[in-house]
């Protein structure tokens, strides 16, 4: 792809205005707002004999790798990591596909490098996947900042004229930021949740995400919240999936009698009373226990 032909090193910025970063553990790959660190710089290598397939090497001399490890049990996304394989195979090969001024990076098996948003553990994670929801289609789009140009292009490749650094995508320019979706600027406005939304019409929904056994860290803390104006359980479930970035979850509340989780199925409390709910992954042990108990989540 012409955008990478003259590039010696690049930075990749996700749809959430965060950079693809190689973690110092020399294995993990995450997103971070600090694009000035060396961990956000990736060296570009073209696969021999190809002008369209590249490898990206981190500052730790390890390759961006599409692994076969699931990111979360029951979810479709698989981990993207740094590796230094003995033999460079297709897991470290990416095909840039241009879409306007952005690119998608496709694995040799058809998945795309995806910058996840939403709540932990999804927030700031990077996976390879095929986005199926309209709300997450842009999560596979990346802005490319050419940090360093190849000084001596290979003689056997016809390169276009070198692209000056000033012509690369300006991550700080208002024009590059203004094109971002309002949905994601709301969802990823900061690395940590700052405050509850202002109370308006409707009710405030407070929610946490449970682990496989239904446990929630720091449930005593208010957690994440948003204002909800609907009246139906299915509307709330849809809104929670949008806010959390999670797709396959069961919306639960705790019994006031014994504190146990149970699926929210009937109706919302009257008079727009605030609610506290817990999102349980559909593939988790606690969700399977619901089925065993004859409770259809």
UniProtKB/TrEMBL annotation:
Limits of the DUF569 domain: 1-142, 202-279
Listed SUPFAM superfamilies: Actin-crosslinking proteins
Record-linked Pfam families: DUF569 (PF04601), Ubiq_DUF_assoc (PF22932)
Top-level taxonomic group: Eukaryota
InterPro entries for this protein: Actin-crosslinking, DUF569, Ubiq_DUF569-assoc
Record region (Disordered): 154-199
Signal peptide, first to last residue: none
Matches recorded under Gene3D superfamilies: 2.80.10.50
The protein's name: Uncharacterized protein
């Amino acid at each position: 792809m012409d955008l990478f032909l003259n590039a010696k090193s690049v930075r990749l910025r996700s749809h959430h205005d965060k950079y693809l970063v190689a973690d110092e553990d020399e294995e993990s790959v995450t997103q971070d707002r600090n694009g000035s660190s060396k961990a956000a710089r990736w060296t570009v290598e073209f696969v021999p004999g190809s002008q369209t397939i590249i490898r990206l090497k981190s500052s730790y001399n390890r390759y961006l790798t599409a692994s076969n490890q699931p990111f979360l049990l029951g979810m479709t996304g698989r981990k993207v990591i740094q590796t230094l394989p003995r033999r460079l195979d297709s897991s470290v090969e990416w095909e840039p596909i241009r879409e306007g001024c952005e690119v998608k990076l496709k694995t040799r098996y058809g998945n795309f490098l995806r910058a996840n948003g939403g709540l932990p553990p999804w927030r700031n994670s990077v996976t390879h996947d095929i986005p199926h929801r309209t709300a997450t289609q842009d999560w596979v789009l990346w802005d490319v900042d050419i940090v360093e140009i190849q000084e001596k292009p290979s003689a056997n490749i016809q390169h276009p004229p070198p692209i000056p650094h000033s012509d690369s995508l300006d991550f700080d320019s208002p024009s590059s930021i203004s094109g971002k979706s309002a949905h994601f600027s709301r969802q990823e406005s900061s690395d940590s949740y700052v405050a509850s939304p202002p109370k308006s019409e409707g009710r405030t929904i407070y929610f946490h995400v449970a682990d496989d056994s239904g446990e929630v860290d720091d449930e005593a803390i208010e957690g994440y919240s948003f204002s909800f104006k609907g009246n139906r359980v299915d509307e709330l479930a849809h809104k929670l999936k949008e806010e959390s970035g999670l797709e396959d979850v069961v919306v639960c509340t705790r019994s006031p009698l014994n504190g146990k989780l149970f699926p929210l199925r009937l109706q919302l409390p009257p008079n727009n009373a605030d609610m506290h709910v817990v999102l349980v992954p559909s593939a988790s042990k606690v969700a399977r226990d619901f089925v065993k108990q004859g409770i259809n989540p």
